[in-house]
Amino acid sequence: MPASASHVSQSIGPLIGQIGRQWRRAIDRHLQPFGLTEATWLPLLHVARAAAPLRQKELAASLSLDGSSIVRLLDALEAAGLVERRELGSDRRAKAIVLTPQGRHTVAEVERSVAQVRAEALSGISAAELAATQAVLQRILQALQPAAADTATK
Description:
With 154 residues, the protein is mainly alpha-helical.
């Protein structure tokens, strides 16, 4: 492998991580006037984008959080008037997380900010370049998923 190809393959992981962090920071800056940070806007997006109301356990899994962390997070979001916990059927222990009207309004602001960051970050990049980048990142993700599944079962 030529030195330049070796350097590229060694730097791809850190670059992907750095892009993710910068992307979230840019969104955080846009949402600062609303008092939102990644810790609050990301769970709201997960709840809003779910096909059906999420249970606490499902939201925790989607955010890679443990049970006690999700309880504290939901307590804060509920205190801010952004979400409600509702009982699911006859099992009083099972709680669905739903957005309040204020939560839906906040998600709309988050979605606008995400779209703006996306537009700014991707401006000047052709559709073909984006498609190629997405394809490569999907392949990397697929290669890593078996490793993540192995770790989760241990």
